[in-house]
Design a protein that fits this description.
Layout lengths: L18 E4 L4 E6 L2 H12 L4 H15 L9 E8 L2 E7 L36 H12 L4 H14 L1 E2 L2 H13 L6 H5 L7 E2 L2 H13 L1 H6 L1 H13 L5 H5 L4 E3 L2 E5 L2 E5 L6 H14 L12 H21 L10 H5 L1 H9 L20 E8 L5 E9 L55 E5 L2 E6 L7 H13 L5 H6 L12 E4 L7 H10 L2 E4 L8 E6 L2 E6 L6 E6 L1
Parallel strand pairs: 14-15
Antiparallel strand pairs: 1-17, 2-10, 2-18, 3-4, 3-11, 4-7, 5-6, 8-9, 9-12, 10-11, 12-13, 13-16, 16-17
């Protein structure tokens, strides 16, 4: 458990915890991936800000204190319930104007190793600053500059480096040696020591004073483009000036006596999570008397998941560039048909699981304000510390989100996910994502705010936690802490486990006897940050897999 005493300047009187609860009237809550984000969210809410103000301030704080994933050089999605209405903000990165379909292939049309992951060509045009600005412009109440003060202070005076931050950094120093300028900026990070980022502080001060115009047209834009030119990257001043974040219609689907409010394309997660919940509901009889995380439970979940991943691979992409058959994929008749394909007793042949229609490091936080407004926000650099490229003079890391495109049809990306022409690279296009910041509503009131990092495992992790809560009646803390597993069609018949909570040995043996291959990856399956409101009780839980902090407080 990584809950720890906050030593930064924004310590508030309340103690920090990974699990907190209180009555809802006049109550705020936050579940953040680190202590600094939690302290900032509470500070802003206590100053009179709303959930969006707190989200903007938290996001900028994490860009300083959680540099492996928090960012201003990446992008993400924000799902909101505000003043009784649903909203979805897409601030995903876009491909530069000079990008093209075959940019990561050699003359023999084979993928060039790591070109979409390491270095300057791996980065899409960042969307975070514009996205946070758009959210603030529409819903914020406190002054923009006020919301950046915590982040600026943490950058100027430093924060205490966590042990797992150091481990990520240590691995990358060797991997990126001689390839990027990562070591120049992050070699000094040591666990338990104070880490100052003076260049980043100056950048945040410019953004506080000038808003997104600095990042997309001003001094920071010029520094970013100069960095691209030094390393042969593609992002230009025109790309930055032309970037737009967009409000899209969220995916809203009925589920039992509730509504799921979640992400729309270019996220695959909202459609996928809706399909997962819908398919499981249709096969509810198969789960009768089946123990949670037993071999039969894992098998049934894998049967559901492989069909959702088959659809994801063929149909989903940026809706501005490809027609996404959203209504068909969520149609009740279609889900009925897909549910009938599930084999409850044996593994379905992977090759026979086709798309059904005719014809790794991210961060998430959840916030609730005393007015009942909710923000579920997931944003990312893609893998830990992104492309490993730091914008010199500006002090922030750039993403390696170009790997989320389908660089070559049928060839898996860093998360083992395959894609098709729907997610091919094109100038200005948003790459497909699995980020799934979500909210469950009951009677037009927020009941659950949830999300997680984890690449292609994001929506399966959320799916399992929701199932733990509502099918097995676990407490929120137990639902989040329970073992998680993952199946995504390919690799064939593989069940992925996590080091934090592998499946019991007897269950593993039974799965192997069924024909599954088991693989324990080096990183845990997600870092769930969740808030739940039931009657007069508000709970907030930070995943014990990492260093998150959850708080519920009266104000």
């Amino acid at each position: 458990m990584s809950c720890q005493k906050v030593t930064a300047l924004f310590v508030l009187l309340l103690s920090l915890s990974c699990l907190a609860s209180a009555a809802p009237e006049g109550t705020g809550a936050v579940a953040s991936p680190d202590q600094y984000g939690a302290a900032t969210a509470e500070l802003i809410l206590r100053k009179g800000g709303n959930a969006v103000d707190a989200a903007v301030a938290t996001a900028f704080t994490l860009a300083v204190t959680y540099p492996e994933a928090g960012n201003i050089g990446g992008g993400g999605f924000m799902t909101l319930w505000f003043a009784g209405k649903p909203y979805f903000l897409d601030y995903r990165e876009t491909a530069p104007g000079k990008a093209h379909r075959d940019m990561y292939l050699d003359e023999d049309q084979q993928l060039i190793e790591n070109l979409s992951l390491i270095g300057h060509k791996a980065s899409g045009v960042p969307g975070t600053v514009m996205g946070l600005w758009q959210a603030h412009q529409r819903f914020g109440t406190l002054p923009w500059a006020e919301l950046l003060k915590p982040a600026i202070l943490y950058a100027k005076t430093g924060f205490t480096v966590a042990e797992n931050q150091y481990q990520y950094r240590a691995d990358l120093l060797q991997q990126l040696e001689g390839k990027t300028n990562f070591a120049r900026y992050f070699a000094p990070m040591q666990p338990g020591k104070n880490f100052v980022q003076a260049e980043l502080a100056a950048t945040l001060e410019r953004i506080a004073a000038q808003g997104p115009s600095d990042f997309y047209q001003g001094e920071t834009a010029k520094l970013l483009v100069a960095q691209m030119q030094r390393g042969g990257g593609l992002i230009t001043l025109d790309d930055l000036a032309g970037y737009k974040a967009g409000w899209r219609e969220p995916v809203i689907t009925p589920w039992r006596d509730k509504q799921l409010l979640t992400t729309a394309p270019p996220s695959s997660g909202g459609i996928a999570l809706s399909q997962l919940l819908g398919l499981k509901q249709r096969r509810a009889a198969d789960f009768d008397a089946v123990a949670l995380n037993s071999a039969q439970y894992v098998h049934l979940m894998a049967e559901i998941e492989k069909r959702v991943y088959a659809d994801r691979a063929d149909y989903l992409g940026d809706p501005d560039f490809t027609t996404v058959p959203q209504q068909q994929l969520l149609d009740s008749g279609y889900l009925d048909k897909r549910a009938k394909e599930i084999n409850p007793s044996a593994i379905s042949d992977t090759a026979a699981v086709k798309p059904g229609l005719e014809g790794y490091h991210t961060t998430h936080f959840s916030i609730l304000d005393k007015h009942g407004n909710a923000v579920s926000n997931t944003y990312t650099l893609n893998l830990d510390f992104g492309s490993g490229v730091v914008v010199e003079g500006a002090g922030f890391l750039l993403n390696n989100e170009m790997d989320d495109f389908s660089a070559k049809a049928g060839v898996p990306n860093a998360f083992g996910v395959v894609g098709s022409a729907a997610n091919a690279i094109a100038p200005g296009k948003r790459m497909l994502s699995s980020m799934t910041p979500s909210i469950l509503l009951k009677d037009n009131k927020v009941e659950l705010i949830i999300g997680t990092p984890g690449g292609s495992t994001i929506f399966t992790s959320i799916f399992q936690v929701i199932s733990n809560l509502y099918d097995y009646q676990l407490s929120l803390a137990d639902a989040v802490a329970a073992p998680r597993f993952h199946h995504q069609l390919l690799p064939k018949d593989q069940i992925t486990m996590e080091p934090y909570a592998p499946l019991p040995v007897t269950v593993q043996q039974q799965l192997q006897q069924k024909g599954y291959t088991l693989y324990t990856q080096s990183w845990n399956l997600g870092d769930i940050q969740a808030i739940r409101i039931i009657g007069d009780n508000v709970e907030a839980v930070a995943d014990p897999r990492s260093r998150g902090v959850a708080r519920v407080f009266r104000y």
